[in-house]
Amino acid sequence: MKKNLAKWLVNSSINPKTALALATIWTMALLAFSHFAPMRKIETRVVSPVLFHVRELLHRSPPLAPQIKIFAVDDVTVTFIRGTDLNLSQWANVMEALDSKSPKAIVVDALFGTLSADAEEDRESMERLKAVKTPIYSGAFPAPGEIFGRKTLPLEKPPYQTQTYGSDLYALPSFEASAIYGTAPSLRDVFTRPGHILYGEDEGSFYPFLKLRENRVLPHVMLLPFIDTKILGNHIDVGGTHFTLTKNGSVPINFGLRADYNKRVRPMVHLLRKEWNKVALDSVMPRDFVYLVPMFYTGNTDFKPSPIGLIPGAYSHLAILNSILTHQTVRTLEIESVLIVAFALLFTLLAWRANPLSLILALILGSFGFIAVCLLLFSYQDLIIPYLLPQVSIAGVGISLLMLRFMIADRKARMIRQALEGIVRPDALALLQRFPEKLSPSLDARERVLTVVFIDIVGFSLMVENQQPRMAFEGLQTVISEITEIIHRHGGTVNKTLGDGLLCFFGYALEANSEVSNHAEEAMGAAFAIQQNNVARILESARTPNPVFPLRVGINTGAVFMGNLGSGERLDITVVGNGVNFAKRLESACNSHLVLIGRSTYDLLGDPKTYGGALRRWISIKHKDKSVESWEFDPFFRETEVRIKADGVHEMFASSTKRS
């Protein structure tokens, strides 16, 4: 930047190395957070409810398969049986009634761990249950160790052997130290197909399989009715339905509408009372799946948090069975790290190339666009994309680089203000601060045809010696301020303040990088206005002790070199050359209150009589053998007495300061 200030003003505001370093810091921090923080749990609690709600609004929630029939021990059933649990005889009645309709499977959301068959009537019920031909599946659970008084399940049958599902089981969660408990020993001849009913670590998820010791696995109870289940790494095929395991071995549950589940639950008493039995059984068709839910009555329902709200735990298992039958599962794309890095790189590139407004728009569009993509992919493709940390990557990297852009833009603006305040018009200065690149063409040295104006105060040095410095400098400040305002009003630029004088030029607008055609006329108009304003101020000062500052003005039009003479980060746009030197010679040869111009400026004025005519003068110039033609104009050609009075006031003021 110090070597090429113009390039710094035009090109990207951020050093690519700085932008990349900042993005790298954000990326490493987010990747570390992703590795150590339980992001899936946070996502399921924060993001998943939004996904399911939006999908519901779009009417894309999966419907409940018609072949699923649900019966529960609800308040009506509890009132009828005068208890909270069905006895073995009542279970036999329910199973026999359902078996008469030949359903595909009966799944019971219960362990039957305390129900016994020791009494005579229970043994009769056991025989009735053994005669049921429909497969019955019940629950089981792993415990970290053996439980006193309970016997573990043997799990010797093929559904619990690892070779039944393949050899690629590395992605399954390990429960090798667990003991498996379920149906009481006296009932194991009837409930021979236990499956686990655990939920996943993340809300709204489940474990399809638990990997046990001795090459054993325990499937989820809803997977057991399907004999063609295969495991291939993190993919599980169940009856033609594909599940994709997440890193912890769980699978997100594809919940439907809670209202649909509520409507489909029927009281189990419909299977117990003969007058209702026929109506209830008419709804059960061959090849249907019947789901029986004990403990569904008020005060004992097992409520669990889920993406669709607080729901009975049975609804989670119901949604798993529904996913298998409808082939609608939810997949989680484990691409969090990829998205974090990709978004960081993308917004680093945007911050490097785009202007701040474009970067703000990109941040807004990127954030909302990513939200829209996540919602649409879930609603229409059942895909869950990691959202939180990638969104933080967008916002963190983007906003950090945007703030860096603003800091650098503020640095440019302060540099430009420091260099050009008072030199160009306030509106031009504001434009250059907002768009620094507009100043770049003016920094390279280039020859331009300009009208140069030198303005000097007559006798200022002597005045300072004989008057209080504070009063002299305050008066000087007022005069220079008035001159600057007039120069700007006529489209000129105050190039330098030279102690008791000013160097100005007309013919080129810095803020527009464009030439101005009538620069000689504007320079003359400004010179006349400056002299007229200054003489009026001198006359007003006649009755006060305020200092008076007669002016002389030299104007020349010619080729000059304009560019930046500042070093490093210092900005100093100036004009140099013979055209500037001649303007200074003209000013030195000019009389007080008048304007002396060169021949080239005179030729550009059109009709010089507009300015009251001119006195042709020949002046000597250093390093030139012959005198040079010049033209002297009187801004008071219509009222010369005003100029004469101003001369008188100046002489009186000069005399008084010498005496003092």
Helix and strand topology:
Blueprint: H1 5-10, H2 16-36, H3 39-46, H4 48-57, E1 68-72, H5 75-81, H6 88-99, E2 105-108, H7 120-130, E3 136-143, E4 179-181, E5 193-196, E6 205-206, E7 209-211, E8 217-219, E9 230-232, E10 235-238, E11 241-244, E12 251-252, H8 258-264, E13 265-267, H9 269-272, H10 274-282, E14 289-293, E15 303-306, E16 309-312, H11 313-326, E17 331-332, H12 336-353, H13 356-381, E18 383-384, H14 388-420, H15 426-434, E19 446-457, H16 460-465, H17 469-489, E20 493-497, E21 501-506, E22 508-509, E23 514-515, H18 519-540, E24 551-564, E25 573-576, H19 578-589, E26 595-598, H20 599-603, E27 614-619, E28 628-633, H21 640-659
Parallel strand pairs: 1-13, 1-14, 2-3, 2-14, 3-5, 17-18, 24-26
Antiparallel strand pairs: 3-4, 6-12, 7-8, 9-10, 10-11, 15-16, 19-21, 19-24, 20-21, 22-23, 24-25, 26-28, 27-28
Helix pairs in contact: 2-12, 2-14, 4-13, 6-7, 12-14, 13-14, 14-15, 17-18, 18-21
Structure commentary:
The chain has 21 helices and 28 strands. With 660 residues, it is α/β, with parallel strands linked by helices. It has 3 domains: 5-47 and 333-414; 63-327, no CATH class; 433-659, Nucleotide cyclase, GGDEF domain (Alpha-Beta Plaits, 2-Layer Sandwich). The strands form 8 sheets. Strands 19, 20, 21, 24, 25, 26, 27 and 28 form an 8-stranded mixed β-sheet that branches. Strands 1, 2, 3, 4, 5, 13 and 14 form a 7-stranded mixed β-sheet that branches. A hairpin with a 5-residue loop joins β7 (209-211) and β8.
Whole-number tally of structural domains: 3
First CA to last CA: what distance? 54 Å
What is the global morphology?
rod-shaped
Give the integer mean of the pLDDT values.
87
Overall helicity: 40-55%
Ranges where pLDDT stays below 50 over 5 or more residues in a row are: none
Number of helices: 21
As an assembly, this protein is: single chain
The percentage of residues in β strands lies in 15-25%
The largest sheet, given as strand count, sense and whether it forms a barrel, is:
8 strands, mixed
Structural class computed from helices and strand pairing: alpha/beta
How many beta strands in the DSSP annotation? 28
